[in-house]
Amino acid sequence: MNSIEVCLTPDLIHQHELAGKIVVVVDIFRATSCIVTGLANGVAAIKPVGEIDEALELGKQGYAMAGERGGKKVDGFDMGNSPFEYMGKELVGKKVAISTTNGSKAILKSDGAQEILVGAFLNLKATVGYLLDASRSIVILCAGWKGTVNIEDTLYAGALIDELAEEMETSGDSAVLAHQLFVGNHENTEAIAGESSHAKRLAGFGVEKDLVFCMTENEYNIVVKLEGDHLVS
Ligand code: MLT
Q1: Residue 105, ligand 1, Cβ within 6 A
Q2: Contact by Cβ (8 Å): 67, 58
């Protein structure tokens, strides 16, 4: 039987063997929710980069530049990190370079996996369908916050495990913890995610509507996958 592991923060990724497995990277608030939203709304491809300078370089090549530091838009970028900024008609058919505090870096840290997917509540069912068809072992990589664990990404890991539980077995205590977090809160995921430190940080910036949107399940029926060094749907 294939297995599902959960890596609760990118700082623990060295504890997981990635070769031959599918890594699903998640940063619910808000990087992977933005990536899924952009690709569902017609963005051609999204290149995750670690540093601001790399995004600025890509900007010179015609990419739209997106991302944040500390939750706030980077000076000189076209977009910050709100999913509502990824829905514009001007982005249809365009490439985007994204650099965020945790999410884009977590994607880069998944190097070595057989396949790298990006997940969000927004495309939960589509990702589940893909993973069931692929029939491989999975590592869910939670982006967390600067090396620490967060509630919202762990909750998503638990939701994904809940959907896959009949076909796969959990491996490691972090997978059991994530699943139990979801099982105990599945009727009100927004409330428990609202308790997270990053939800409180973002609420301080007045972007509560982002939080509600990022917790919406199955808004989009797309799977997001890394092809080369670009994310595509
Ligand atoms: C990140 O990558 O750390 C986040 O997506 C931060 C944010 O909410 O903008």
Answers
A1: no
A2: no
CATH code 3.40.50.2300 for 3-232: no
Distances in whole angstroms, Cα of residue 201 to Cα of each of 1, 71, 208, 219: 40, 8, 10, 25
pLDDT at residue 168, rounded to an integer? 95
Domain ranges for the chain, please list them: 3-232
For the four alpha carbons of 85, 222, 106 and 228, in that order, the dihedral sign comes to negative
Separation CA 82–CA 59 (nearest Å) = 19
- For ligand 1, what atom is nearest to the CA of residue 82? 9
Q: What was the pLDDT predicted at 71?
A: 84
For residues 177 and 228, what is the distance between their CA atoms, to the nearest angstrom? 33
- Decide whether any atom of ligand 1 lies within 6 Å of the 31 Cβ: yes
Q: Is the pTM of this model over 0.85?
A: yes
pLDDT of 70 strictly over 90: no
Render pLDDT for 138-188 as a digit per residue (tens, 0 to 9): 999 999 999 999 999 999 999 999 999 999 999 999 999 999 999 999 999
Ligand 1, atom 9, lies closest to the CA of 71
Calculate how far, in angstroms, residue 72's C-alpha sits from the geometric centre of ligand 1: 9
Distance (Å, whole) CA 154 – CA 169: 17
Distance 69 CA to ligand 1 centre (A): 8
In this prediction, residue 35 has a pLDDT band, given cuts at 50, 70 and 90, of very high
